[in-house]
TrEMBL record:
Superkingdom of the organism of origin: Bacteria
Entries under InterPro entries matching the protein: Fosfomycin_Res_Enzymes, Glyas_Bleomycin-R_OHBP_Dase, Glyas_Fos-R_dOase_dom, VOC_core, YwkD-like_dom
MF GO annotations: metal ion binding
Entry-linked Pfam families: Glyoxalase (PF00903)
UniProt keyword Metal-binding, yes or no: yes
Keywords, in A-Z order: Metal-binding
Organism: Zunongwangia profunda (strain DSM 18752 / CCTCC AB 206139 / SM-A87)
VOC domain boundaries: 4-127
Name of the protein in its database record: Glyoxalase/Bleomycin resistance protein
Alphabetized Gene3D superfamilies for the sequence: 2,3-Dihydroxybiphenyl 1,2-Dioxygenase, domain 1
Keyword Metal-binding included in the entry's annotation: yes
PROSITE patterns: VOC (PS51819)
Length: 127
């Protein structure tokens, strides 16, 4: 039986830019960083509130993944927030553009989208 989501793996094109984005802009905690010489690849383990959630990888010459229009496969990653407006202001002050706030018609909750350095769609969902 499935117990929980263990982690999400993300392959980036510019490791320093993505490391900065996830660790400094989104303020995820770096648990471990490993350079794998045989693969010319970095692996960065990141946590949110002490829980391991993301493996950030770099690989040479990875193909681009289409994000727009919406491609088949993983659509986006969503992060829960208590105060959506405050989080949007924080991201905008760090140079991250966010879409207009939308309302989930089923739950009445507010949400918005923004992108990581490789245009991976990320969602903020107010709880």
């Amino acid at each position: 039986m499935l117990k929980s989501v263990h982690h999400i793996a993300i392959i980036c094109s510019d490791y320093p830019a993505s490391k900065k984005f996830y660790s400094e802009i989104l303020e995820l905690e770096i648990i471990r960083e490993v350079y794998r010489k045989e693969r010319d690849s970095y692996k960065l383990d990141l946590a949110l509130n002490g829980e391991y959630i993301i493996e950030l990888f770099s690989f040479p010459n990875s193909p681009k993944r289409p994000s727009h229009p919406e491609a088949l496969g993983l659509r986006h990653l969503a992060f829960a927030v208590d105060d959506l407006a405050n989080m949007i202001l924080k991201l905008n002050s760090k140079g991250i553009k966010t879409e207009d706030i939308r309302m989930d018609p089923q739950t009445g909750k507010k949400f918005t989208f923004f992108s990581d350095p490789d245009d991976l769609p990320l969602e903020l969902y107010e709880e």
